[in-house]
TrEMBL record:
<dbReference type="InterPro" id="IPR031657">
    <property type="entry name" value="REPA_OB_2"/>
</dbReference>
<dbReference type="GO" id="GO:0003677">
    <property type="term" value="F:DNA binding"/>
</dbReference>
<dbReference type="Pfam" id="PF16900">
    <property type="entry name" value="REPA_OB_2"/>
</dbReference>
<protein>
    <recommendedName>
        <fullName>Replication protein A OB domain-containing protein</fullName>
    </recommendedName>
</protein>
<feature type="domain" description="Replication protein A OB">
    <location>
        <begin position="3"/>
        <end position="80"/>
    </location>
</feature>
<keyword id="KW-0238">DNA-binding</keyword>
<dbReference type="InterPro" id="IPR012340">
    <property type="entry name" value="NA-bd_OB-fold"/>
</dbReference>
Length: 149
């Protein structure tokens, strides 16, 4: 699980909203981005998650689901509720299935840092698009989450 800090963004040039992105692994092993908005974003307890032993399971309800470039886009609504390690019959099965995932919560860089390059690091070299296209993706993996996903 990875969490971005809360950010304030301008929506349609008229209002400012708070948002926070989460990258979660679903039960099929796919990474899913969920954007929490407003109070849901500010109330999300990343400190509480850090105190739980991994793997941590999160059940979310009341999400808005859209599709963008063939991928699901999930966002919170006024009805969104989340539960950490919910008391459901499937939890013990999920814990067994994902027991190998022992990595702690990762804090992702903000979207601003991602776009301005602050998240990349001082030791990385700038590259042109042509140079990037020549790189082998399996040799140059970076665990960054881009907001355009």
């Amino acid at each position: 699980m990875a969490v971005q800090p809360i950010e304030e963004i301008t929506i349609q040039r008229t209002r400012i909203a708070k948002k926070r992105n989460l990258n979660l692994q679903n039960i099929r092993g796919e990474i899913v981005r969920i954007t929490l908005w407003g109070e849901t974003a500010t109330n999300f307890e990343d400190n509480g998650i850090q105190s739980l032993l991994p793997p941590v399971f999160v059940a979310l309800t009341g999400l808005k689901v859209k599709q963008y470039q063939g991928k699901p886009v999930l966002g919170s609504t006024g009805s969104t509720v989340y539960f950490f390690n919910p008391d459901i019959p499937q939890l013990s099965e999920y814990k067994r299935r994902f027991e190998h995932l022992k990595s702690p919560l990762r804090i992702l860089p903000s979207s601003t840092d991602m776009y301005t390059g602050h998240a990349i690091g001082a030791d990385s070299e700038p590259k042109t698009i042509d140079e990037l296209l020549l790189l082998d993706p399996t040799l140059h993996k970076v665990s960054l989450s881009l907001p355009s996903c």
